[in-house]
Amino acid sequence: GILFALPVSHALGIRKRGYDVAKQKEIQKVTEKFQRLDQEITVSQIVQMIDLVAVQVQADAPLHQVVEAILARPRIQVVCVVNREERLIGLIDIASLADAMFFEMFPEEFISEAIDAEKVLTYLQRSRVRSAEDLMRPPAWVKMQDNLEKVFHVLHAEKLNGVPVIDDHYHVVGYINLLELMAFCLRNRGGNEARS
């Protein structure tokens, strides 16, 4: 047999089984509303709704103080390292903090992973960690006037589970974590619509 394929530019009356036009239009409206959220919602609205207080430590704080500070606020996943003037100078994510703490207890676990020169150097540096300043990474932040898109961009680009909110003088005035940001978006999207 011979099979012919003809290009069809427009088909009328053909639908998939179970396709509901009204439901698809409703889903499209919800999607458009959700896509507009990134421009309409500001960090100040998110901070007001989430209401989290950032964990801040001085740069010279020993690691045990960093752990104690984060234990006091378990919903916070990123520690803000500040200088004497209380300005943000760095961040410590909980995974890096755990690695530094456990490196002292189980160095063989980390050393067995060191298969190239770069990893060996990383573990050598980790062995020298004594204070928050030794462990911190460069700061990342958002400001009150930024929008939802900027918050997600910073969290995603920096691979963080939370981000501090700063003022114009780099003082930490709030904190947004990823899990509560998702909950905030779902609430604003609409409870019933988010579940469909």
Radius of gyration of CA atoms, rounded to a whole number: 24 Å
Give the overall shape, derived from the CA principal axes.
flat
Instruction: Give the strand content.
Output: 5-15%
Helical fraction equals: 40-55%
Structural overview:
The chain is an alpha/beta fold and 196 residues long. It is built from ten helices and six strands; from the N terminus they run H-H-E-H-E-E-H-H-H-H-E-H-E-E-H-H. The protein has helices at residues 21-40, 43-50, 63-71, 94-105, 107-111, 117-127, 132-135, 148-158, 178-189, 191-195; strands spanning 55-58, 78-82, 88-93, 142-143, 162-166, 172-177. The radius of gyration is 24 Å and the shape is flat. Mean pLDDT is 82; it is low at 191-196.
Task: Please specify the SSE layout and strand pairing.
Elements: H1 21-40, H2 43-50, E1 55-58, H3 63-71, E2 78-82, E3 88-93, H4 94-105, H5 107-111, H6 117-127, H7 132-135, E4 142-143, H8 148-158, E5 162-166, E6 172-177, H9 178-189, H10 191-195
Parallel strand pairs: 1-2, 4-5
Antiparallel strand pairs: 2-3, 5-6
Briefly say what this structure is:
The chain is an alpha/beta fold and 196 residues long. It has helices spanning 21-40, 43-50, 63-71, 94-105, 107-111, 117-127, 132-135, 148-158, 178-189, 191-195; strands spanning 55-58, 78-82, 88-93, 142-143, 162-166, 172-177. Strands 1-2-3 form a three-stranded mixed sheet.
Q: Which terms summarize this structure?
A:
3-stranded mixed sheet; 196 residues; flat; alpha/beta
